[in-house]
Queue: 2 jobs
Job 1
Amino acid sequence: MSFNGSGTFSLTYSWVQDAAQSIPITDSRMDAQFTDIANGLSNCITRDGQSPATANLPMGGFNHTNVGLGTSSTHYTRLDQVQKNALTWAGTAGGTADAITVTTSPTFATLYPGQEIDFISSGANTGATTINPNSIGATAVKKYGTTALSAGDIPSGALVKVKFDGTNFQLINVAVSYGTMASQSASSVNITGGSITGITDLAVADGGTGASSASGARTSLGLVIGTDVQAYNANLAAVAGLTTASNKLEYWTGSGTAALTDFTAAARSLLDDTSTSAMKTTLGITDPGLVLISAGSASDDATFDITSGMDGTYEEYVIKGINIVPATTSQQLMMRTSTDGGSSFDAGGSDYSWAYVMRDTAGTDNSNQDSADTYIELAASMLAGTGEGGMFEIRIAHPAATSLYKLITWNGVFASSTGTRVVIGGARRLATADIDAVRFLMSSGNIESGEFKLYGVKKS
């Protein structure tokens, strides 16, 4: 019966069963038994290699162990030969730098497409190069398909890999020449010589400019001169070279040169005005030579006092009364002075002497005066009511002096029962004490409305 096809060997006869059945052992049955045994042994693989396998041998998940090194193309390849790259490794090359010879172990006698050889070069090639493996014959080495090697494509002492394409060896690891180049770290190099040519433009996303010209690079980077960025300008460069600071303003000192000067808050408050009138207000000047000191309004007040700003700063002061209206009609506008900052106002019977003349639109002249009075009368018969009122300008000379009688002059215009009246007058404070405050009041009733402004007259 021999093997049953599943690897199990069964004898043709069982002598035990034959004896139990009283079957005699005959020569024919013995011959058949031993013939089956012989056939079974002939179907086994012998240890000394006398008989080859006649079919595929399933290993059942087991290995052939302790096998010898593969030395022929029909041998097993042992795993360590693959791990050591022994099948393609040729060690250090012989021959010359341009006519290289190599020997592999195991050797091979024929080149096949896709076959690789690895070796250490013994010199830098100087041009076209060949490799002769295992003395098969010299075969040209190319790069990038059909291009012959250039000098230095194989550096001296380099690990070289070539692959046979059916006609030539292809150099897989072509050396790249960067001129004089030194590696600075594992991730960067420093090129100090040579040039890089013939490469595809490096995209902006990869750190390049996406262009091969300066103008193209500026377009790719959004830096077109005159569109995206300002072209170089000497004036702009001069301004950029200044060291800025607070309250400073640049100005030109010449063509393409600039400097800084002070630009204070006070100066800025003047420059932001949109008219000369606004500038005068900012500077406190409403008329040539006058400096506004203070301003205030009366609103149904018994008196209006100016108690500050009248000192020795100016030799002459001007008080303007604008639209002064009495609460009660036909009243006199009066004035008193103070020597104690307005704590009290002089009202003695011989403190003041005054006089004025008036002329109205009816052609009537009028005048009034007093050589010793408790007040200075500025105007008489002023009308009350909407649209009425008067305007006056009063001048006081040397109010801070203590050795002079104080002289006061005024002029004005106001509405009266006989029409519009014009008044011109003068007065004298009958003492040499200083004047540092003034009070305005009506002969009866309050000051309904009006504005009073104090100015200093600039010294010449």
Job 2
Amino acid sequence: MKKQKRQWIQVRNPSNESWIEIEIDNFHKIEYTSKKLPGEVMFHDVNENRIHFCDDEDEMQERFLDPSDIYIVKGYGIEVFLNGLNAPNSIIFDEEGSIYIADSGLATGNPMILKLTNGHMDVIAEDFVIPISGINYQDGVLYVSHRGFVTKLYKDGTRENVIMGLPSNGDHYNSPVAFSPDKKMYFGQGTVTNSGVVGNDNEWVTISPLLCDYTGDYVMLLGQNFLTHNILTEAITEDMAYTGAFSPYGIPNIEFEVRKKYLKASGSILRANLDGSNLQQVAWGFRNPAFLKFNNSGQLYSVNNGFNPVGSRPIENATDDFYYVTPDLWYGWPDYSGGEAVNSPRFTPLGGHEPTLILKNQPNVPPRPYVTFPPNSTIMGFDFNYNMDFGPYGDVYVSEYGSTIKAMIGDGLSYAGSGHRISKIDMRSRTITTFAINKTGFPSSLSKGGGFERPTHVSFGPDGAMYVVDSGLNIVGDPNKFVPNTGVVWRIYRMD
């Protein structure tokens, strides 16, 4: 990699608006870009003009950013900490003050880990399986979660795959790891499909026609089948496919079929030793446990992204849920949403049929969520606040990514009351309030403002401020692909 340049300049100190020599502990404003050099740092002078290097090439037009477009609870301020990133989705801090950022790879096709130390940005690892879902850090080691793998990244640059072979080649993948008080690593594994049935909404069918979901317990199926046009026989226009639940595409079920227990089950939470040994299933029956974390009392909490009204078994009005995780329980997928059976009329999609249940014998009565978020919230990374100077002790701040339903311009898609914001969970009253949101109520790409687009992760830094990772602007019509150089890290701080 080409040697990176370094300049020492004056930058603004956001705590008092003074100009200081660049030091990472002063939380200066930096921009990072990877269009030319994966580790190049972009600096600005005291007049906010970019300082160019002599061999700079023209850069892609920058995303418009204006923190004043964001409403935030009184007593707090927000600013841009980093921008020009490529689809970031995770931030973590080590004991030496360095900052690590995960580039998911969903903008450039090259997932990588970035390290920011004393104003200097480096790429410390790349060539992971797309996408990186997140990172965590413990005892000098980074744990990188990428599709199907958990990889340990050591300070000398060596890496070790400690978890492999996860069923992450479908719609959802494995989450970042969380560390328990007894030094085990826990992580979520998302489902292959939306609601247990492979259908024409699954773009991977033509590449992986035998892929399907697996159950986390011995269950008996009712045996219904779902009819679609057969996308594996394009030349035969009238060919139809009959597909059963927990079966590959085009393979029907019969009444009362039994499915075996699978350790790496779809929609499960797993745990293992830090070296990957002794892999165990903690719970299953989630759709997409995309992020989990222990509080300081050792209790495990997890988000769960609810059903979408798509595919062969569409389910409308499914909530996103925040769970206190009790081991050895089934949490309801594919037959329950937020503790309620999906054959309730309210889950019937517009112009569709009322969903039917798939399982004949349900392992247990599914637990109710700790709190419930509206449909299309897509809650992601969260953190507990233990700094009384910032806010109430123990409350949770959670990022809301927004709808993941693929849509084109002009399609009806609800933004009201969900997504593209940071919410706060009062852990005592079990209530949710909006903490930070664009003043328009819409994502910045829709309102043409300079605020939030795709908040993905919330983490408190060693300075007591909150850092919000915003993955950036989507390619039109695809919520899983991003425009390069539009990712942002925001910093939220308490004002005196």
